[in-house]
# Entry
Amino acid sequence: MEAPAPLRKSLALVCCDIVGSTRLIARVGDLVVATVLREFREQVGRLAKENHCLMIKFLGDGFLAAFENMNDVMPFIISIESLSLLSQNTTLIGQLEGFYFSLHYGNVLYIETSYGSDVLGEDVNVAAHLSEIAQPNEAVISQAALERMPADYQALAGAIEVRPFKRVGDVKFRRVKLFECHPNRMPAWFRRP
Amino acid sequence: MAASDAEPMPEVVTEAIVVIDLVESTLTSNLFGWYAVGRQSLRDLRTLIGEVGNIRGLRCVRSTGDGYLLTFYDPQSAEMAAIGAVEAVFELLSRIFVRNQEVSEARALNLRCAVHLGEVDVVPNDREGPHISMAFRLEEISRASLPTALNPIPPEQFPLQNYVLCSEEVAGILSRRATHWELASIGLLKLKGFPGWREVFRVLPEDTSDDLSTRGVL
# Structure
């Protein structure tokens, strides 16, 4: 059967990386980390489904996810952040130090490939490189994405920063601290209903 | 006193680093014998490397077991060392194509090549440093790497042998200084031990009408 034709779509693109995965391998060994990653992928896959994720692609110790509705994105990010926060010392995922997130909004090619669905385009690169400048437990959000987010979340964003990207030019972005307090004292908006 | 304290600090230079891997060399040696086929193939490869490299700034040839680590140096310009390295690799592939027409299938050479540029520690008959590791990571990229890449080319479009990959650093130099090659991004990849995403490029001869691509070599 032929694969469906590629589609141009405007999507929210989320990149996530695990903080200190190399340190974790050195500390507990690659066999344990492989088990942690398996559990992480299962949990993230479940949360992606719950939050109407269009496509998720696991990339070593992270993932790329695409959403059609911007309203689904922050609950998804927060629910993943909560995985390490709320399960500390109770599950394998609790061993993770946290996550780096980035969020970008752009026009990409959505395609079916031999290894599953994927999204292609310069905006994917932008999302990936934004995740490289995130601090642990922080989401770096491009201005293009932030403008499409609910006002509650926009209010949490820090000052505008700018970074040049190859073939794209300057990209404006802002940082959102996903938590700055103990999980028990997280603001109500942070908790999933 | 640590053993390394007695040794002088190595010279640090910027060189083009090439990793060449013989495709299925272990299998070939096991199948046809190291002394009958494997040893001669590796020696032929070393000879060809000398022929194409010596006039282009080849400074180090180090066996990696089933291939070679090479470095190229240009006293005038580090960037020209990268150009020399890429020229040498394409000339090597061209000569190997001709050689493969003349030898038995068992003796045919097929290569995977990766080119990077960076500062290295010069140690006798060898090179050390993270840029060497980076070059080896590039060489390890295969079709299987692409499903975990961002913006990848379709895995089935990635060649199995006789191709040249390069790092962003080398791609930048080629796009500025050389007109006779084309660069095709194969995607953004995470390379083990290196933080962040790295865009990796395949280097292709610009004129595909009469080159190795049309002959199924590149």
